[in-house]
Amino acid sequence: MTDQPLHTPLRVLFVCVHNSARSQMAEALLRQLAGARCTVESAGFEPGPLLPEAVQAMKLLGVDISQAQSKSVFDLYRAGRIFDYVISVCDQSTAERCPIFPGVCKRLHWTFADPSAVDGTPAQRLEFAVGIRDCIKNRIEDWLAGLESASREPS
Fold first, then answer.
1. Residues noted as catalytic
2. Contact assessment for residue 146 and residue 125, using Cβ atoms and an 8 Å cutoff
3. What is the crossing angle of helices 52-59 and 22-34, to 10°?
4. Which residues make Cβ contacts (< 8 Å) with residue 61, sequence separation at least 6?
5. Which of 19, 21, 36, 150 would staple 70 via disulfide (CB 3.0–4.6 Å)?
6. DSSP code at position 79
7. What residues contact residue 60 under an 8 Å CB cut-off, 6+ apart?
8. Is the dihedral of CA 26, 73, 65, 118 positive or negative?
9. High-pLDDT (> 90) share of the chain, %
């Protein structure tokens, strides 16, 4: 994307089950990649503690999410929060539980495996989380590139 910010930043919400790994990584990655072009949050259906492997995976990129707090998607909904995009990053059946937010909102669904569901050694769990992180990063980069090319098309 260009360095010129959008006139109004896009408001983006990433949602997954616990708001402990995938949505937290997506939030931090979009914030890093888009800068002032987006305001971004994440939330979960059943908020839980951050997954240590997700924190470590992001730290390997120089991004610290260790102080991030899990939030409830339903609290954001009840507060009347408005988003331009609500992007679920969990499986389809879980994504269908996401409330319909007020206003004109585009719902997207990006399926990523759950790093908390992986058994193995700490090194294996970290390796899996890094793989998920990289998939999320690639998807965000592609999405941002698509937004940029769409904004350059004549109306």
1. 16, 90, 98
2. no
3. 20
4. 133
5. 19
6. T
7. 130
8. negative
9. 67
Asked if 57 and 133 count as a contact pair (C-beta separation under 8 A), the reply is: yes
User: CB neighbours (10 Å) of residue 25?
Assistant: 33
Q: Domain coordinates of the chain in residue numbers? A: 10-146
Residue 103 scores a pLDDT above 80: no
The neighbouring-strand residues paired with 42 are 14
- What is the number of H-type helices and E-type strands within the chain? 5, 4
Residues 42-50: what's their mean pLDDT?
Answer: 93
- Please check the confidence at residue 5 and state whether its pLDDT lies above 80: no
Say how many residues make up the chain.
155
Distances (CA, A) of 74 to 42, 60, 92, 131: 12, 31, 18, 29
Residue that is written with structure tokens 């730290």 in the block: 59
Which superfamily, per CATH, for 10-146? Response regulator (3.40.50.2300)
A 10 A CB-CB count for 87 gives 25
Residue 100: both structure tokens together: 């319909």
Angle at 57 between CA 54 and CA 59, to 5 degrees: 110
Cα 86 from Cα 78, distance rounded (Å): 15
47 vs 68: CA distance, rounded Å? 12
